[in-house]
Amino acid sequence: MERASCLLLLLLPLLQVSATTLEPCELDDDDERCVCNFSDPQPDWSSALQCTVAVEVELRGGGRSLEQFLKYADVDADVQKYRDLIRSLRLKRLTVGAARVPAQLLMGVLRVLGYSRLKELTLEDLEVTGTMPLPPLEAIWPAVTTLSLRNVSWATGGAWLSKLQQWLKPGLQVLNIAQAHSLAFSCDQVRAFPALTTLDLSDNPGLGERGLTATLCPHKFPALQDLSIRNTGMETPNGVCTALATAGVQPVRLDLSYNSLRAAADPLTPGCVWPSALNSLNLSFAGLEQVPNGLPDKLSVLDLSCNRLNRAPRPDELPKVDNLKLDGNPFLNPEGPSPREDSMNSGGVPICARSPLAVGISGTLALLRGDRIFG
Ligand SMILES: *[C@@H]1O[C@H](CO)[C@@H](O)[C@H](O)[C@H]1NC(C)=O
Ligand SMILES: *[C@@H]1O[C@H](CO)[C@@H](O)[C@H](O)[C@H]1NC(C)=O
Ligand SMILES: *[C@@H]1O[C@H](CO)[C@@H](O)[C@H](O)[C@H]1NC(C)=O
């Protein structure tokens, strides 16, 4: 009996430790990163106060509705009086995820952060409800340079991008949109992104070439250098080329990996002139059995790794290219296992095994595949 109570006493500190780990927010030892997961039915929201010192803050709502906070979000409020306080925040990166959030609340938060040093904003697994009010004219908006959205749905449908644009200063450099519910933008309302150099539309398997044409609003991306359209249902390089030409975008690097590409262009489709600046093309993990027709004439980098090429490409099939990647194709290793499984490089490391990330992505995307994301 006594032994038992003794044991309990010894366990007490441990119990206390596990009680404190139930706190929804955790700040790391360097006061750099603060992560909150409000999945508890009755979360202690005040725990988030410790995050005010962090540079990187991640807030996850456990899938709940944040409507109750709407009363604190006054879009027309005079935030000027908090200016110095907000300026003193170290916050640079903010992630908001797993919640149903009224557009007005999201906007109120961005309004308050107008004086902050916020540079990177990530929204994940969010359902944004309600319409967005017109922004007050004199409002100061955050100078966000990187905006990442994954699985965010908007009550405003395809108008969301042009609305969201009104809440941010025009210096956006990187825009990532994955698992989008609507990429059919109202192009006449979208303003140009004068500083945007990187557009990543990867992991939108329902996009397709027709959708890409609709998404790349003509002349809105004048500074674009890097375009990633991994796993976006593209069918032929030529179809992508046509979409780029229609939109007048001139990327330097194009990532087409993880699309099931057909090598031969449809004989009825006319050839297409690739952007003259294009110097890197990624066609890896594209299931190709031969080099596709209609590639650009000259490239610095062409990545054809992890396809199903059964023989070495003939020089006349390839563009002029300085750096050609062909590893992970069956012709290099006729005795070996198929590239779908475990192509090994000389070190015995599987080079074409899908990364856990890619597997996770295609897993969730299988769920989204039926979604219509444009039209
Ligand atoms: C948040 O907590 C819930 C419940 O404990 C857990 O299932 C979920 O994975 C957590 N989310 C993150 C991003 O850690
Ligand atoms: C997308 O976000 C919603 C919440 O808005 C969530 O319920 C759903 O599970 C998420 N889907 C995926 C594939 O993560
Ligand atoms: C091409 O894409 C694959 C898969 O997305 C990636 O692993 C590889 O590094 C890329 N190649 C280049 C040259 O960037």
Automatic annotation (TrEMBL):
Residues 1-19 form the signal peptide. Its main location: membrane. It is found in: Cell membrane; Golgi apparatus; Membrane raft; Secreted. Disulfide bonds join C25-C36, C34-C51, C187-C217, C241-C272. Residues 312-347 are annotated as: Disordered. The keyword Aminoacyl-tRNA synthetase does not apply. Residues 313-325 have a biased composition (Basic and acidic residues). One of its GO terms (molecular function) is lipopolysaccharide binding. GO terms for cellular component: external side of plasma membrane; extracellular region; Golgi apparatus; lipopolysaccharide receptor complex; membrane raft. It comes from the Eukaryota. It is a lipid-anchor; GPI-anchor. Keywords: Cell membrane, Disulfide bond, Glycoprotein, Golgi apparatus, GPI-anchor, Immunity, Inflammatory response, Innate immunity, Leucine-rich repeat, Lipoprotein, Membrane, Repeat, Secreted, Signal. Belongs to the lipopolysaccharide (LPS) receptor, a multi-protein complex containing at least CD14, LY96 and TLR4. Interacts with LPAR1. Coreceptor for bacterial lipopolysaccharide. In concert with LBP, binds to monomeric lipopolysaccharide and delivers it to the LY96/TLR4 complex, thereby mediating the innate immune response to bacterial lipopolysaccharide (LPS). Acts via MyD88, TIRAP and TRAF6, leading to NF-kappa-B activation, cytokine secretion and the inflammatory response. This is Monocyte differentiation antigen CD14. It comes from Tupaia chinensis.
